């Protein structure tokens, strides 16, 4: 019974994340289409005070965040763990320029993954981000979402760090395919 | 066998522009823009025009970043014009950014591609634009409404006007001869340049 409960998408935490992003002054939300981020994407599209930027590939969002920061705005990148691999060299811009950087990463290739193609990048995600100087904060349970997001937002926008919040498949629900 | 390009840099027929003349003429009053300069020759093109100036952020790595940095900056500063100056090589690496920009269509974003048809920094290998790829058609195909290719001096004024005045994302290709960019010593401290750029922004 526990396993069933754990793989159900939790109701409500995605909305809490959106409120925190907006409360912290984020006005640009860059994304690639992703089921795990669909609530955030839809809320940003419905928000007249936010620019929603659909990307063709994730590294576009890394550069966008740096450009937004140059103009005094705050941005976030929503992507899947597979997209982390596409961002690697672009993250040298973040590290070299000491740009504040926040990304929310919906995980594949971890807890309960049913598609073997997802494991290579999913299991490499934290190592790749860490190698490029991005601090990883993993969330496994809905009860930890708000505290972790608040911590990440402080680290990024008060301390100027690069942070990836990893939303595990235990949190968002594993894909059976 | 697939077609192979010749090994030495060659001037494409009809291309007569010198980058050292065309780029300053297209940029015009550089103070009218916040500027992102792509890595390689275009950072030197811009530096020769602006000097080491706080309203310019020049890349020396992170190839492919220029256009999307320009988009983030343009959205953050809607009251100012943003100019991205990038080379054909960098643009080809991040060609999807043109689609992303076209969809948003910010009225204050202008992109100038200095297209010499080659990778000048790495030994003058030909780029795809020497081999038939047309960047203006790609930009137009993405949906960017204001596009222009500048191949001769008589077209510079029209290109400059697009960069300065278009009400929507604009994209100008300057087809220049494969010659060395102007000598300019870039400031390579990316974090210093970030702080300087932000400090120099005019209050909103």
Describe this protein's structure:
The complex is a heterodimer of chains A (177) and B (204). Chain A is an alpha/beta fold. Chain A contains nine helices and six strands; from the N terminus they run ααβαβαβααβαβαβα. Chain A has a six-stranded parallel beta sheet, sandwiched between helices. In chain A, strand 1, helix 3 and strand 2 form a beta-alpha-beta unit. In chain A, helix 2 packs across helix 3, helix 2 packs parallel to helix 8 and helix 4 runs parallel beside helix 6. Chain A is globular and about 40 Å long. Chain B has a six-stranded parallel beta sheet with strand order 2-1-3-4-8-7, with helices on both faces. Chain B has a two-stranded antiparallel sheet with strand order 5-6. Chain B is of the alpha/beta class. In chain B, helix 1 packs across helix 2 and helix 1 packs parallel to helix 7. The N and C termini of chain B lie far apart (58 Å). The chains are: A alpha/beta (177), B alpha/beta (204). At the A-B interface, strand 2, helix 4 and helix 6 of A face helix 3, helix 5 and helix 8 of B.
Strand order of the largest sheet of chain B: 2-1-3-4-8-7
Largest sheet of chain B: 6 strands, parallel
Question: For the largest beta sheet of chain A, what order do the strands appear in spatially?
Answer: 2-1-3-4-6-5
N- and C-termini, Cα separation of chain A: 21 Å
| Shape field of chain B | globular
Based on CA atoms alone, the radius of gyration of chain A comes out at 15 Å
Share of residues in helices of chain A: 40-55%
Low-confidence stretches of chain A: 1-5
Decide which structural class fits the backbone of chain A.
alpha/beta
Distance between the termini of chain B: 58 Å
Map the helices and strands.
The complex is a heterodimer of chains A (177) and B (204).
Chain A: H1 2-7, H2 13-23, E1 26-31, H3 38-45, E2 51-54, H4 58-70, E3 74-80, H5 81-84, H6 91-97, E4 101-106, H7 119-131, E5 135-139, H8 145-157, E6 162-167, H9 169-172
Parallel strand pairs in A: 1-2, 1-3, 3-4, 4-6, 5-6
Helix pairs in contact in A: 2-3, 2-8, 4-6
Chain B: H1 19-27, E1 33-37, H2 41-50, E2 56-58, H3 66-76, E3 81-87, H4 88-93, H5 96-104, E4 109-115, E5 118-119, E6 125-126, H6 135-142, E7 146-150, H7 156-165, E8 170-175, H8 190-199
Helix pairs in contact in B: 1-2, 1-7
């Amino acid at each position: 019974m526990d396993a069933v409960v754990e793989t159900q998408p939790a109701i409500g935490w995605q909305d809490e994340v959106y409120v925190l992003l907006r409360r912290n002054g984020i006005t640009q939300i860059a994304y690639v289409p992703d089921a795990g981020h669909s609530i955030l994407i839809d809320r940003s599209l419905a928000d007249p005070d936010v620019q929603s930027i659909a990307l063709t590939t994730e590294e576009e969002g890394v550069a966008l965040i740096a450009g937004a920061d140059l103009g005094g705005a705050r941005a976030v990148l929503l992507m899947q763990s597979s997209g982390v691999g596409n961002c690697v060299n672009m993250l040298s811009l973040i590290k070299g320029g000491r740009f504040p950087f926040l990304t929310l990463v919906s995980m594949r290739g971890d807890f309960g993954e049913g598609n073997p193609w997802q494991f290579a990048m999913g299991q490499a995600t934290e190592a790749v981000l860490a190698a490029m100087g991005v601090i990883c904060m993993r969330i496994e349970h809905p009860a930890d979402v708000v505290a972790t997001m608040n911590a990440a937002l402080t680290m990024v926008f008060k301390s100027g760090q690069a942070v990836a919040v990893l939303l595990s498949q235990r949190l968002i629900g594993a894909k059976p395919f | 066998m697939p077609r192979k390009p010749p090994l030495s840099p060659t001037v494409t027929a009809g291309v007569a522009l010198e980058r050292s003349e065309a780029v300053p003429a297209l940029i015009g009053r550089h103070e009218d823009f916040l500027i992102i300069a792509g890595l390689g020759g275009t950072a030197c093109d811009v530096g020769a025009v602006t000097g080491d100036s706080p309203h310019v952020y020049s890349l020396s790595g992170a190839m492919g970043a220029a256009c999307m940095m320009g988009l983030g900056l343009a959205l953050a500063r809607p009251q100012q014009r943003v100019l991205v100056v990038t080379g054909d090589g960098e643009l080809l690496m991040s060609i999807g950014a043109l689609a992303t920009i076209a969809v948003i269509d910010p009225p204050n974003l202008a992109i100038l591609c200095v297209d010499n048809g080659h990778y000048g920094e790495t030994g003058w290998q030909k780029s795809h634009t020497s081999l038939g790829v047309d960047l203006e058609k790609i930009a137009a195909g993405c949906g960017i409404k204001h596009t222009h290719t500048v191949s001769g001096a008589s077209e510079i004024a029209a290109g400059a006007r697009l960069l300065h005045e278009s009400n929507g994302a604009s994209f100008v290709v300057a087809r220049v001869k494969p010659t060395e960019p102007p000598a300019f010593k870039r400031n390579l401290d990316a974090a210093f340049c970030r702080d300087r750029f932000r400090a120099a922004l005019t209050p909103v």
